[in-house]
Amino acid sequence: MNKTTYEEYLAEHGELTLTNVGVSMLPMLKQGRDMFTLTKKTEKRCEKYDVVLYRVPPNRYVLHRIVEVREHDYVILGDNCMNKEYGIKDEDIIAVLTRFVHNGKEYSVEDTGYMNYAKAWYSLYPLRREAKKIKAKIRGVIRKK
Fold first, then answer.
1. Which domain, by its residues, includes 80?
2. What is the pLDDT of residue 51?
3. E strands of the chain, at which residues?
């Protein structure tokens, strides 16, 4: 049986719903519990705070948030990640998150509460980075003892 790619499925159906795998979008999406729906990307450019599915050649797909829109590309970051990804182009993005189920409750990316979450969570990025560095230093000290 042939495996259908996400691109092929979206070309035929326009929309795709998946169960979350991985921890990069915590706390918004928990692995094995939460689901999300993607809509095929149009020619329109994505916007800051959009969550997008993009392809990393040859066969890896990543769901992360756009944190900066630049003239020719995007800067992207998973909600639970420390390192930004640079150089993601429009042609790399295959779909955009439109809604998701978190802990049994459905949310639309059009909801004001969701947008407030996205902005607030990203604004904490510098603090999350520093907290992670401090945590790593503490672990190192504990291991030495």
1. 6-144
2. 98
3. 15-19, 35-40, 51-56, 60-69, 74-77, 85-88, 93-102, 105-108
